[in-house]
Amino acid sequence: MAAGIMLFEQKGFSETSIQDIVDMLGVTKGTFYYYFKSKEELLMDIHLRYIEALLENQKRIIEDSTKTIKEKVFEIVYMLIHNIEKQGRQARIFFREMKHLNEDHLKKIVEKRDLFRYNLQLLIEEGMRNGEFRDDLPPSIATLTVLGAANWSYQWFQPDGKLSDFEVAKHMVSILLEGIEKK
Amino acid sequence: MAAGIMLFEQKGFSETSIQDIVDMLGVTKGTFYYYFKSKEELLMDIHLRYIEALLENQKRIIEDSTKTIKEKVFEIVYMLIHNIEKQGRQARIFFREMKHLNEDHLKKIVEKRDLFRYNLQLLIEEGMRNGEFRDDLPPSIATLTVLGAANWSYQWFQPDGKLSDFEVAKHMVSILLEGIEKK
Questions:
Q1: Is B2 part of a structural domain of the chain?
Q2: Mean pLDDT (whole number) for B127-146
Q3: Total domain count, chain A
Q4: What pLDDT shows up at residue A155?
Q5: Angle B97-A14-A46 (CA atoms, 0-180°, nearest 5)?
Q6: CATH code for position A56
Q7: B149-157: average pLDDT
Q8: pLDDT at A92
Q9: Of A137, A147, A182, which has the smallest distance from its Cβ to B180's Cβ?
Q10: Is B177 close to A176, i.e. CB distance below 8 A?
Q11: In angstroms, rounded to a whole number, what is the distance separating the alpha carbons of residues A22 and A15?
């Protein structure tokens, strides 16, 4: 799986053969087929592991009764950016190579992505009800704006840049909650 | 170019052959090679046309002396979302197939993307100086948050959805400028 992630990210899914993967590991194709039915199944496993880890962490954050909704939104944004730092390759494969999944697998992954988005939307709606958030915005657009800002960081976030993932998340959530405008 | 855009978006760049493109148009490969040296050159032309149109429109917005900085930020976000509505396929190819450009071409495109981002950052810095925007945020993070929210919409914006591109841009810019928090 690690060799697949490395090669899919560097060369692209289509340009990587099972031979490339086993060559990198010094094993035979038989070893590959012992674990995966096909290259597509390996891609599916990478996608599944990525989104399931995100969903599990999101659940833990949302269920924490000691935190405000605002704090939970911060935790989710921080998780996404931190995850991109830790798992940059998986993130890029997740967003870029999804079209190579077969129809059944794609459906499963899209359902889980939708669930992640929907969980965040429920949280934002809760904030609109309990008075933490404005209630004059469509919750779906608020959700997609938060997710877009955070997810886009896989395009630009540099773990060795001037700001840490924590500082980036802090400023980004300050913008999303308080706005860029001078009050 | 239109056939290339359609096929690259549906099948992916690697899975599309020059034969597929000329078959779609009912012409010969000779016709293709009259206009493009290679499939990669066609991809470069698609990328170039996409980013140059964005840069040109951005320049027009920024140079309009009748608008405030906030209005210009709105215009830029609206342009990006509107462009995704109008040119969804190009947008998806732009973000997804960039890795298939050769080194020289990739360098040129990345320079133009960087320029688009930098122009927006200069605008935001101007807003911080003239008192329209908070000056306690790193301008680079403010820029990437705005761009991320808008660009991510190529993943989800549905031209036939409940909200028009104008309404989506209006709510998104309201979030970015004023924040989600209840005042």
A1: no
A2: 95
A3: 1
A4: 79
A5: 95
A6: 1.10.357.10
A7: 85
A8: 84
A9: A137
A10: no
A11: 14
Contacts of B132 in chain A (CB under 8 A): 181-182
Residue of A nearest to B98 (CA): A96
Q: What percent of chain A has pLDDT over 70?
A: 100
- Residue B150's nearest CA partner among B69, B102, B83, B97 is B83
Are A168 and B100 an interchain contact pair (Cβ–Cβ within 8 Å)?
no
In this complex, which of B96, B135, B180 lies closest to A133 when CB atoms are compared? Answer: B180
Which 3 state secondary structure label does DSSP give A18?
Answer: helix
For the question of an ipTM over 0.90, the answer is: no
Residues in chain B within 8 Å Cβ distance of A142: 171, 175, 180
Q: Residue A67 — left, alpha, or beta (φ > 0 → left; ψ -120 to 50 → alpha)? A: beta
Range of the domain at B164: 40-178
Q: Are A141 and B169 in contact (CB under 8 A)?
A: no
Rg of chain B over Cα atoms, rounded to whole angstroms, equals 19
Higher pLDDT, B88 or B32: B32
How big is the CA angle at B74 (ends A153 and A84), to the nearest 5 degrees? 5
Specify the length of chain A in residues. 183
B132, part of any domain: yes
Q: Quickly state the pLDDT bin for A55 (edges 50, 70, 90).
A: very high
Residues of chain A with Cβ-Cβ distance to B127 below 8 Å are 180
Residue pLDDT, tens place only, B111-121: 999 999 999 99
Helix axes B139-151, B69-86, angle to 10 degrees: 30
Residue A30 resides in a domain: no
CA B57 and chain centroid, separation: 11
- What's the rounded Cα separation, in Å, for the pair A2 and A46? 9
Distance from CA of A181 to the nearest CA of B (A): 4
Considering Cα of A90, then A91, then A92, then A96, what sign does the dihedral take? positive
- On the question of pLDDT at B69 being above 90, the answer is yes
Question: Does a structural domain hold residue A28?
Answer: no
- Chain B positions with Cβ closer than 8 Å to A: 12, 14-15, 70, 96, 99-100, 124, 127, 131-135, 137-138, 141-142, 144-153, 155-156, 163, 168, 171-172, 174-183
